[in-house]
Specification:
149 residues, globular, five-stranded mixed beta sheet, 46% helix, alpha/beta
């Protein structure tokens, strides 16, 4: 995957993260793209808004994509390194690639995914990092709840 395309797809996830932040939630966004490059689903972390601890951004994008015969060749794009829960979703459904905005504020399961054959594209996006750092500084209790601390 070329970096320009990865960054275009990341913009969809960033828009979701910003929408979640505006709603009073945690600013993590995701998008699921099919093997053909078509946007299948997009979503944001809605744990706060829905009172649902399982509604992570990747889960929301996956649910929005609806049932697919296969997820092989698909790409999960996320603003933040996926946690173990979301990494498990990627492995369970054999999603082929994960594009990550940043892993500085949280280093989730992306190394594990790479070890198991998932292509990982880490963009180290300064905007994603700044958004998460500001959120963590302003809402440390909410952030720690989100990551299970």
């Amino acid at each position: 995957m070329n970096e320009a395309e990865a960054r275009r797809w990341l913009a969809t996830a960033v828009a979701e993260a910003r929408a979640g932040l505006a709603e009073g939630g945690i600013p993590i966004g995701a998008a699921l793209y099919g093997a053909d490059g078509r946007l299948l689903g997009r979503g944001r972390n809605r744990r706060v808004q829905d009172g649902d601890p399982s509604m992570h951004a990747e889960t929301a994008a996956f649910r929005a994509a609806g049932r697919q015969r296969s997820y092989r060749g698909a790409t999960m794009v996320t603003t933040l390194s996926p946690c173990w829960y979301c990494s498990g979703l990627v492995r369970q459904f054999r999603i082929s690639r994960v594009v990550i905005g940043e892993a500085r504020t949280f280093h989730g399961g992306h190394d594990w995914l790479a070890e198991h054959g998932v292509e990982v594209v880490l963009l180290d996006d300064a905007g994603c990092t700044a958004m998460m750092r500001a959120f963590i500084e302003e809402h440390p209790d909410l952030w720690n709840e989100d990551i299970g601390e």
